[in-house]
Amino acid sequence: MKVRILGCSGGIGGRHLRTTSLLVDHDVLIDAGTGVGDLTLAELTQIDHVFLTHSHLDHICSIPFLVDTAGGMRSRPLMVHALPETLATLTEHIFNWQVWPDFTVIPSPTQPFMSYVPLKVGESVTIGARTFTALPANHTVPAIGYALSSPSGAALAFTGDTSTNDAFWPIINRMRDLRYLIIETAFCNRERALAEVSKHLCPSMLAEELARLEREPEIFITHLKPGEIELTMQEIEDDAGEFNPRMLQNGQVFEI
């Protein structure tokens, strides 16, 4: 299983800044931020599944364009997996015929371009030989992260957007072959109050969270805010350097 980073920024502002999206092999997306727009038309038509962490715009904004662009070129609907609350938000606020057409009923209700698949925390979905498991997250809207597991048992964990998260670490610590952990840190330390109210992490909070980790995966930082990247990464080095966290990069590929 190959995981390619299409976007990992907390904002936009240049070719290297794309919001959250991970492409698994050629056919599965984890989130659908602005990074999806860098895929070719041929690549877009191969995407069969999207697993969403939550409903915030930086994680869903490419779904309307993806289904509109590629829907008519496909023989089956795009399957969107998410919490029921996330799917309800998409239905009410995005695919509502006012912001965008409802592709769950067009071109016909029996042969739509898109279908919804509700997920709950702890549930796993197996696609081919790959398993996607919904992990608990703690955010301002209902949210999850994901564990991606290969047949060998190797795993990559992605927190999604989250604040401190008591429920996350016992699950992660039970993964015997956790190779990679992708964890967010959206704000620098001077904005800790903002991080707390918006339910994100800052470097000091990240260090407190990583202290709960009992495995030794490679750790990568995502969702850094443009304009504060260098400062935040320096603070991460100061506060959590013992865990050797590195900044996630667009185009980076992980194999598990």
Record keyword descriptors for this entry.
256 residues; alpha/beta; Metallo-beta-lactamase, Chain A; 2 domains; seven-stranded mixed beta sheet; 8 helices; 14 strands; 24% helix; 25% strand; globular
Report what the structure shows.
With 256 residues, the protein is an alpha/beta fold. It has two domains: 1-82 and 84-118, 4-Layer Sandwich (Metallo-beta-lactamase, Chain A); 121-249, Ribonuclease Z/Hydroxyacylglutathione hydrolase-like (Metallo-beta-lactamase, Chain A, 4-Layer Sandwich). It has eight helices and 14 strands. The strands form two sheets. A seven-stranded mixed β-sheet has the order 6-5-4-3-2-1-14. A hairpin with a 7-residue loop joins strand 8 and strand 9 (144-149). The chain is globular, with a radius of gyration of 18 Å.
